[in-house]
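QA checklist item 7 of 12: single-chain prediction sanity check.
[x] sequence parsed
[x] length recorded as 339
[x] structure emitted
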Amino acid sequence: MSKSMFFAGISFPKIPTFAFLGLAPLLLTGCAALQVRMGTRVYLAKTPVVAMSVRQAGEPGIAPGQKAALVVEFPQPDGNRLFTEGAAQGKVMWRELEVISTVVTANQKGTVTLPEDPRLSDGKMPHVTVTVPSHPELRAELDIPLRYDRSYSLDFNASNGAKGFDGSSGTDGAGGSTGSMDPEHPSAGGNGSNGGNGGDGQNGWPGGDAPDVEIQVAFRPGPHPLLQSVVLVGRQKDFFLIDPQGGALTVTADGGSGGAGGTGGRAGRGGSGGIGSPNGSSGLDGRSGSDGSRGRDGHGGSITVVYDPQAKPYLSALHLSSRNGPHPAFIEKPMAPLW
């Protein structure tokens, strides 16, 4: 007997997982076909176009670690124009185009990415070539200029301390036993027991200490001066190329904040006196626990900037923070190119 899935008394044959995986490309193809039928997409193989061009969406240029969207335009014989989907919100599907790139990497959605390490692109020109397999006569190329006027940031902040555990609540006192109200045989009600004291909250854990940081800054002269920089923390090295006219590098090595103290436990309530002749006395409420103290803040790391004399006028491009640590130190000395 074959395995089946049942729902509301109806039996459906069980479909193997690989069957769904095999349907995925068909579903995607079907989605594209539906979009074409609705007029929101077109098949280039069935669409007359006379030329093509490619450009960046928005301001031209790309910085290390940055992404940029491409727009491809197709003039038609009747004077209308078609655009790619995505940034241009057009009807041409990127899946019908082929993008070849150098220096930058391109994905299947018309987006290019420049590596974060500036050494990999320094002195090179990112380039893309777009072709259309269904129209082999069409070809468009684009150079993407490098730019370094963006803001970079590195965070070496220490972790914050954990909150202390809350104190436990005190137990409530038990009620007194019931006596007798019979006038001929009266007996007193029992006294309620006292409530327990709440536990004290635990002190918060201390914040962590940030590591020490060294920043080296060399100067690259030219019509548009640039700052070469490497940030060293232990064995980690991060490289940057900064245009001081609009660019910046922020480095933080703040100490972690101390954790909050735990809340003191609730006092237990005294038990009520038992009914009798006379009634028993109620127990006393317990004492609430004390709140824990806040943990101490961690120390900020020491930040040392070693810079070339020619870079001194541009040091305002560095934004540094070492909360609860020493003030950043600046050391001036001749620096050779860092790469």
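[x] summary fact logged: The chain has two domains: 44-147, 148-175+190-339.
[ ] second reviewer sign-off
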